[in-house]
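Ticket #4471: structure export looks truncated?
Reporter: QA, pipeline team
Priority: medium

Steps to reproduce: submit the single chain below to the structure queue and open the exported record.
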Amino acid sequence: MANKNVLAIAAHPDDIEFVMAGTLLQLAARGWTVHYFNIANGCCGSMTLSQEECAATRMLEAQASAALIPAKFYAPICNDLEITYSTELLQKVASVIRQAQPQIVLTHSLVDYMEDHQYAARLAVTAAFVRGMPSYTPQPSAAAYQDDVAVYHAQPHGNRTPMGEIVKPTHYVDVTKFSERKQLLLRTHTSQGVWLDDTQRMGSYIDTMLDLNREVGSFSRRFEFAEGWRRHLHLGLSTAGYDPLREALAADLLVN
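Actual output as written to the record:
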C-alpha cells in the first residue's frame, strides 16, 4: 500500500481517546500517518466556563493529545449539539477528508447514545463517498483523490445501543500494550473529569474508558483490552473485500 493515512473523525474532544486512540497508536507504530479531527469544539462541556472559554480550553487539550500520538490536527467546525447532516458541514468534512487522503477512516457508530455521534458518523461516510468526485466542491476547496477507502465504525458508548442491546464488533484491535498511553492521551482532557462526573455519573473517566475497553476485550475472548470496529459496506468506497485495518494490524487484530 503506497499511501498509509488514517483519519479519525469524532464528534467531540475526548471521543477519539475513548474509543479510537488505541487503534491509532497501533497504526502509528506501523508507519501510518495519523490525522485527528473533532467536528464539534466541546463548548458545552463545562458547568462553570463560558462557551468561548470552554471551547478554547478543549481545543488546547485536543491539540495536546494529537501531538502525543503524534497526529495532524484539524480544527473543529461547529459548536456542540450543532452537528447536523447539512450541506455546510458535509462540505467542510469532505474538505478534511480530501486534505488527509485516508485509506482508513475511523468514526462513530451509526447508532449511538447521542445525536452528535450519529450525525458525525453519517457525515464521515458521505464525505468519504464524495472524495473522488471532481464535480463536488468542498469548503475550503481541496482536490479529489481516487484511492480506495474503508470506513470503520467504533463501538457505541457503553458498548450498547440506546435501547440497551449489546453491540459486538467484527474487528477487535488489541490495545493492551497501549493502555497506559491511551490513559495519558485521555488525561490531556483534564476539563472533562469533573464534567463527566457531574453530568453522566461516570466517576473516573479514565476508569470508564478502561472498563469499556476491558469489556470489548472480553467479547474477543483473546485480548485483555480491545477496541472494536465494524466495517462499512464497500459500495461507493472501495473494491469488494478491501479491509486495510485487517491487513495492517495482522497479529494484533481478531476478525469474527
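Status: closed, not a bug. The export was complete when the record was re-opened. Leaving a note from the reviewer for reference: Strands lie at 5-10, 33-38, 72-74, 104-107, 150-154, 171-174, 226-231, 253-255.
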